[in-house]
Amino acid sequence: MTQPYQARTVRVAAKMSSTRAQFAINFDGPGIDPASIPDPNAAYALDRIGNRGLVLLQAFMDEFEFDEASKTIKFAKVRTDAS
């Protein structure tokens, strides 16, 4: 691996209970532009390869957000009575 990627790190935190699973992923390097992620309900949403994972997270998670610097992604799934 070469610079600048060699020195970058990714940190993952998870917190789970019987009713909720929440995750936070923090990464070094430039942040993600949230405006570049298509609406998960748009017909073309999965066409752009670089955003597929983020589109799927938005579609399947109950909560999804970026921090102000767009370098931390937080998402959660909440158990409902039907789950």
TrEMBL record:
Annotated InterPro entries: HATPase_dom
Superkingdom per UniProt: Bacteria
Histidine kinase/HSP90-like ATPase domain segment(s): 7-75
Protein name in UniProt: Histidine kinase/HSP90-like ATPase domain-containing protein
